[in-house]
TrEMBL record, chain A:
Gene3D superfamilies xref list: 2.30.30.140
Annotated GO MF terms: carbon dioxide binding; iron ion binding
Protein name: Hydrogenase maturation factor HypC
Organism lineage: Bacteria, Pseudomonadati, Pseudomonadota, Alphaproteobacteria, Rhodobacterales
Function per UniProt: Involved in the maturation of [NiFe] hydrogenases. Involved in the biosynthesis of the Fe(CN)(2)CO cofactor.
Protein family: Belongs to the HupF/HypC family.
InterPro entries the UniProt entry points to: Hydgase_assmbl_chp_CS (IPR019812), Hydrogenase_HupF/HypC (IPR001109)
UniProt-listed GO biological process terms: protein maturation
Pfam families in alphabetical order: HupF_HypC
SUPFAM superfamilies per UniProt: HupF/HypC-like (SSF159127)
UniProtKB/TrEMBL annotation, chain B:
Domain of life: Bacteria
Transmembrane segments: none
One GO molecular-function entry: carbon monoxide binding
Protein name: Hydrogenase maturation factor
Species for this entry: Pseudaestuariivita atlantica
Family stated for the protein in its record: Belongs to the HypD family.
InterPro entries with a match to the protein in the record: Hyd_form_HypD (IPR002780), HypD_1 (IPR042243), HypD_2_sf (IPR042244)
NCBIfam families documented for this protein: hypD (TIGR00075)
GO biological process, alphabetically ordered: protein maturation
Alphabetically ordered keywords of this record: Iron, Metal-binding
Length: 96, 380
């Protein structure tokens, strides 16, 4: 919850609600990009962002993304984030 | 040199550790009379234990683990209210998974779920919004929990619900903010704090200005830090150098992510949606002025406190004492080390937590339990 997780913006999926698709270590996830959309939504495609509970909170560079991911892996937090995402997908379907 | 394998740049780590030892010497700090540095953020606490930084740094330096773990400071009466909401038949209660195992006075959300309450662990408030869209005949309540890293996401979700005029979505807002408890700890005459390692991602949202009072009014250094072990060592060194040089400033070690003025869009969304509560209860710390956020009148339709007539100051008594033998309050304020609590590892484990500090991996007790026994060989 505190550390967030880095992801790369793949496409803008909804211009009206500021939603984008991000690639988080191979997992595609819907993220809200309102907080990082200063230069326009389309400029975000390909950028790396730090994602907190589904919201991109800062634009970072690729090297920082990699360093952050390594730290999250070492702390076991990356696994926790992915588990939370998958658990949430199940919760949406009422399968828990 | 086990630690050498753990660090991305062992040479830099060794250099920083040597510099830290040098400044600790210059300050005349010793095991008996150490310098006390508080890392505010639970993520930093986790990293310090994971990398054994408390053992690699000199004995004249002591880390005090701060209140920056939102699950750890969640009072039992708030958990009780979550359970009460979740047990209403019309409600789908959505929460981050971290909150599930926090003990209430009668049960945790995990126990309530096992007994049949419709509780869903969501990754994001976006998923709670989607659940509300898919279940128009149910009331979806999102448990707003966390510091400034999660407050903007809840605020933006409330704004989104308002723009869609959703009638079945509300937020049980228990968001809290970092600066007020720091002020409360500095005002506590029993606390000995010489400087702070400031939270990285909270500062990414709020910037560095909100910490100015720490340097200006209390004369203590604070350095906003990243999460890598090298970041932490660098930040500790910066705090110690300020002390040695007789400076008290707000410095930003994590400028590659943290802008001095934070994230203006997040700040604006939070200002639009929330207002500070006059006071709010923190587990282990008691009532702290202006430390909690509530939803403003203009978004009252999305405020679960009003919708279900529950929440802070309503119904149940405000203060519930900790379970017998639980020393979370003393650990939280640095009076006791986790292992000095009589229940540590006995009546209180991560599997069966008695106190909140054992629940989250960001809690000092859970981190100590997981990594405390790891012996790192000293440098060279």
């Amino acid at each position: 919850m505190c550390l967030g997780i880095p992801g790369q913006i793949v496409e803008i999926s909804d211009h009206e609600t500021n939603l984008a698709l991000a690639d988080v270590s191979g997992v595609r996830r819907k993220v809200n990009v309102t907080c990082v959309a200063g230069e326009g939504l389309d400029a975000l495609v390909g950028k790396w962002v730090l994602i907190h509970v589904g919201f991109a909170m800062a634009i970072i560079d690729e090297a920082e993304a990699k360093k952050t991911m390594d730290t999250l892996n070492a702390l076991g937090e990356a696994q926790e984030e992915f588990e939370a995402m998958f658990e949430s997908d199940r919760a949406m379907e009422g399968r828990t | 040199m086990k630690y050498a394998e753990e660090f991305r740049d062992p040479k830099a780590a060794k250099g920083l550790l040597a510099q830290i030892a040098q400044v600790i010497d210059e300050l005349g700090a010793t095991k008996e009379k150490p310098v006390h540095i508080m890392e505010i953020c639970g993520g930093h606490t986790h990293a310090i234990f994971r990398y054994g930084l408390d053992k690699l740094t000199p004995e004249g330096l002591e880390f005090i683990h701060g209140p920056g773990c939102p699950v750890c400071v969640l009072p039992m009466s708030r958990v009780d209210e979550c359970v009460e909401l979740a047990e209403r038949p019309e409600v789908i209660f959505t929460t981050f998974g971290d909150a599930m195992r926090v003990p209430g006075t009668k049960k945790s959300l995990l126990q309530a779920k096992a007994e049949g309450a419709d509780i869903r662990m969501v990754y994001s408030p976006l998923d709670a919004l989607e659940l509300a869209r898919r279940n128009p005949d149910r009331e979806v309540v999102f448990f707003g929990l966390g510091f400034e890293t999660t407050t903007p996401s809840t605020a933006l979700s409330i704004q989104q619900a308002a723009s869609e005029e959703m009638a079945n979505f509300s937020v049980f807002c228990n968001h809290i903010t970092v600066p007020p408890p720091i002020k409360a700890l500095l005002d506590d005459p029993h606390m000995i704090l010489d400087g702070f390692v400031g939270p990285g991602h909270v500062s990414m949202v709020i910037g560095v200005e909100p910490y100015r009072f720490i340097a200006r009014d209390y004369g203590k250094p604070i350095v906003v830090a990243g999460f890598e072990p090298i970041d932490l060592l660098q930040s500790v060194l910066m705090v110690l150098e300020q002390m040695r040089d007789g400076r008290a400033e707000v410095e930003n070690q994590y400028s590659r992510v943290v802008q001095d003025d934070g994230n203006p869009v997040s700040i604006a969304a939070c200002d639009d949606v929330y207002e500070p509560r006059p006071t709010f209860e923190w587990r282990g710390l008691g009532e702290i002025d202006s430390s909690g956020l509530r939803i403003r009148e203009k978004y009252v339709a999305f405020d679960a406190e009003t919708k279900f007539s529950i929440g802070y100051g309503k119904g149940a008594p405000r203060f519930v004492p900790e379970p017998e033998g639980c020393a979370c309050g003393d650990v939280m304020t640095g009076r006791l080390k986790p292992i000095q609590c009589p229940q540590f590892g006995k009546g209180c484990t991560p599997e069966m937590p008695l106190g909140a500090l054992m629940v989250s991996s960001e809690g000092a007790c859970a981190a100590y339990y997981q990594y405390g026994g790891v012996d790192l060989e000293p440098a060279e």
